[in-house]
Each structure stands twice: as structure tokens, then as C-alpha cells.
Amino acid sequence: MTEVVVKIPADLEHRMKELPEVDWSSVARVLIRGEVSRLVLLKSIVSKSKLTEEDALELGKKVNEGLAKRYNKLLEERGL
User: Fold this and answer.
1) Degrees (nearest 5) of the Cα angle 60, 71, 67?
2) Euclidean distance between CA atoms 50 and 59, whole angstroms
3) Which residue among 21, 31, 78, 79 is the one 20 to 30 A from 37 at the CA level?
């Protein structure tokens, strides 16, 4: 099995030491496995896409604009 070194900020290390019963190696393994699975799926989806990077950026921009309008409307309705 390969070993991986992870640098942890001091404040996070302190908080982790407050939970001595946690097996952080197992936590890291589970999280890494999940992220690898997610990235493999994403790669599979992207490999079948006919969108160019430019198309994807434009689509993302339109989605963001639509979400911004929706949330602004909700905020206005609630008087915020």
C-alpha cells in the first residue's frame, strides 16, 4: 500500500487531536476513494461530450446568470 503525506494546518491538527478515537487514515482513504470515483465518472461524461470548452463556459455563464436572477427574485420577495 502506498503512503501519502498530507500537510494539515495547525488549527485543524489541534481540532483533530480533540477527536482521538477517529482513524484519520481511514477517513482520508474513504474521501480519496470517493473523489477518485467522482472524477472517473466526470471524465467518462466529458469524454462523450461534443461541447467545446468555449461552449461549456458559455453554458455555465448562462446557468449562473439564471441562478442569480432566481435568488435575487427570492430575496426581493422576502424583503432582503
Assistant:
1) 15
2) 13
3) 21
Over the stretch 29-75, which tens digit does the pLDDT of each residue have?
999 999 999 999 999 988 888 888 899 899 999 999 999 999 999 99
Where do the structural domains in the chain lie, given as residue ranges?
1-49, 50-80
Residues ≥6 apart with Cβ < 8 Å to 16: 8, 22, 24
Q: Is the model's pTM score more than 0.90?
A: no
Tell the residue number behind the cell numbers 463556459, with chain if given: 57
Q: Is-contact 16 24, C-beta < 8 A? A: yes
